[in-house]
Amino acid sequence: MASKAKSDGGIVETVKTIVYALLIAGVFRTLFFQPFWIPSGSMKDTLLIGDFLFVNKMAYGYSRYSCPFSICPFSGRLLFSEPERGDVVVFRHPVNGSDFIKRLVGLPGDTVQMRNGVLILNGAEVPQTPAGTFEELMEPQGPMGQLPRCENGPVGEGGTCTASRFTETLPGGRTHDILNIDTNGFADNTDVFTVPAGHYFFMGDNRDNSQDSRFGQAVGGVGFVPADHLIGRADRIMFSSAGRSMLYFWTWRSDRFFKAVE
């Protein structure tokens, strides 16, 4: 009987340990950092398919989307800190409920337009300077096997896919690289958008391969993103793998480990 009681006590302690571990993990994920895996090429070359990062959830305070499965029992934001133009942000898509990652370019009250592939903020052209050429292999990328878009296309599998790279300088002096594949697409020439109060305007750094605020929600885009849909800021890449699985160690990109997101 003593042996059975000891066994039962061991099971109870094991269950308690698991429960405590899950609670601690849930609190950590809710209040501090959320893991995020880059699934698409919309933020190249800042973020590549297969980059793994932790999202800083303390950066902008908390909303119901801060909790797993959006179960936080409050509306609006708690401890809200205004995001800065140029931040790379993870947010909840206002319609389809998935998590997106893009760069914040338009603040409440801003006007935003694309003209011949150049960003126009509040009527002023945002400077771009040439920064060489981004090159990658034409091959399936990541678990979903996506093929890259190329400025020099069509490119056969195994060939070199290129895109013109520019350094963009936002008002306030923050800089980041963008890629340009085409200057005549819909996303390169848009109407003037006026960002409503309490909303933000996001764009991908891979300007011709991103569903973002330039596209309305009716056509699968993001549109204006409400403040309470912000989840957190991407600060640093922790791990990166170019393969279809992170277990393929020969595809690890060690030069991207612990790389700051700019």
UniProtKB/TrEMBL annotation:
One Gene Ontology term of the biological-process aspect is: signal peptide processing
Regions crossing the membrane: 18-38
Q: Name one GO molecular function term.
A: signal peptidase activity
Where does this one sit in the cell?
Membrane
Q: EC number(s) for this protein?
A: 3.4.21.89
Q: Name one GO cellular component term.
A: membrane
Q: Which reaction does it catalyse?
A: Cleavage of hydrophobic, N-terminal signal or leader sequences from secreted and periplasmic proteins
Which keywords fit this entry according to its UniProt record?
Hydrolase, Membrane, Protease, Transmembrane, Transmembrane helix
The record places domain Peptidase S26 at 12-238
Q: How does it sit in the membrane?
A: Single-pass type II membrane protein
Active-site residue list: 42, 102
Q: Which InterPro entries match?
A: LexA/Signal_pep-like_sf, Pept_S26A_signal_pept_1, Pept_S26A_signal_pept_1_CS, Pept_S26A_signal_pept_1_Lys-AS, Peptidase_S26
- Organism's domain of life? Bacteria
Q: Which family does it belong to?
A: Belongs to the peptidase S26 family.
Name by which UniProt lists this protein: Signal peptidase I
Species of provenance: Fertoeibacter niger
